Amino acid sequence: MSVREIPMIIDGQAVMSESQEWRDVVNPATQEVVARVPFCTPEEVERAIASAQKAFKEWRKVPLGKRMRIMLTLQALIRDNTDELAALITEEHGKTLPDAKGEVGRGLEVVEHACSITSLQLGEVAENAASDVDVYTLHQPLGVGAGITAFNFPIMLPCFMFPLAIATGNTFVLKPSEQDPSSTMRLVELALEAGVPAGVLNVVHGGPDVANQIADHPVIKALSFIGSSHVGALLYNRAAAAGKRMQAMMGAKNHCVVMPDANRSQAINNLLGSAFGAAGQRCMANSVVVLVGEARQWIDDIVEGTRNMKVGPGTQQDADLGPLVSPAARDRVVRLIEAGEKEGATLLVDGRNCQVTDYPKGNFVGPTLFTDVTANMAIYREEIFGPVLCVVNVETLDEAIAFINENPNGNGTSIFTNSGWVARRFETDIDVGQVGINVPIPVPVAYFSFTGSRGSKLGDLGPNGKQAIAFWTQTKTVTARWFEPENVSSGINSTISLS
């Protein structure tokens, strides 16, 4: 099998990097090298930014209707190429094909939302706000925007960024994850095929040096980041110091509250899918279940469901979860499982010695379940980013809410209940950005904004929905009064000369 060499995209063309530093992209189920990605040189990053800066002069003037038609074409191309995109995700990330297709679908939702740009970017007007004075707002593009994405959603996360950024008239520089770039590159190729002009969407690759160059660069006016809390905080501070807008969607420790009046089978099935799907490698995974009162009696069913989850390569049709993205990721998860044992949690299901037939080199960790977990344990404090579920028992809804609100993160939480009163109380009192009611992963549809909070988010405005339009545009307020020219006689039949 030939190994792909991943290009940059600069000025609408695929360009091979001259960097001396390249990284192997590895299939996590087999350890086979499937691609090589460069760590671009500073000069190459400068070329990409300069291309975006040059293209902005014309792109900002392109009518909304034309931008809309490009987005319409892009959504059709994504839909037609879903299988190819999903296969690339599975090959380099490891998630199952159904999960990968679901990711493409969530990314597609954002592009479909961008097709409404003709109404999303409208301003407001107050006619005759004062005597013969009109006041109105314009939502104008900022200039060059940039995005830095994590490995866990190589299609969805770029879609959280560049479609709305360029639809609002900005140009863009994207740095995808170096761990699984091929599906992102194919997405960008589809965008160019849809009619995105040269220079409007550029791609560079690399690690911290490239990320820092983007954060520091004076030409880039806004930066969107999705990834770890540590990196997000560093980039946020650098971007702020450089005077640019920044949104950073970062780490999480999500909780799922199960009330004793919930639909038992639905709650458990949804909980297990949320915790273990994509091998737990998603910031919205519910990695902690809080069993309230008599719901603790359901633990045997949760254990049985955990043991029945099937592990295999992402191409295996009946696999519930695939491998972790890298050996380093697997080693980290194993270390945290060991720490959980040492700190006194009860390990009911151990996935460390998971073996998958015909895939002896895969980065597999099976579904793992701890009970008797407390807030001071490493398996609770840290975002494990693996298929590990922690069980916490409390007596009341009040205790569950207090326990969740004490966690420093606020990305997402869910509750399973058949009581409307309980659900309303939970959504009101919980201090978390995204709440699911009988929904295990409360990522909203794309025309609502992604609204993580507290330690999970830096910046006032999140991706998608109305917040994204505000993030990628500058509001300009115009106060206008027009006087009748002195050399024109009054009357309805007056003719005004423009010479």
From TrEMBL:
Biological processes per GO annotation: L-valine catabolic process; thymine catabolic process
Top EC class, one word: oxidoreductase
Entry EC number(s): 1.2.1.27
Domain of life: Bacteria
Domain Aldehyde dehydrogenase: 17-478
Pfam families in the cross-refs: Aldedh (PF00171)
SUPFAM superfamilies: ALDH-like
Keyword match ATP-binding: no
Oxidoreductase found in the keyword field: yes
Keywords: NAD, Oxidoreductase
Annotated GO MF terms: methylmalonate-semialdehyde dehydrogenase (acylating, NAD) activity
Similarity comment text for this entry: Belongs to the aldehyde dehydrogenase family.
PANTHER family in the record: MALONATE-SEMIALDEHYDE DEHYDROGENASE, METHYLMALONATE-SEMIALDEHYDE DEHYDROGENASE [ACYLATING], MITOCHONDRIAL
Protein name: methylmalonate-semialdehyde dehydrogenase (CoA acylating)
Classification lineage: Bacteria, Pseudomonadati, Pseudomonadota, Gammaproteobacteria, Oceanospirillales
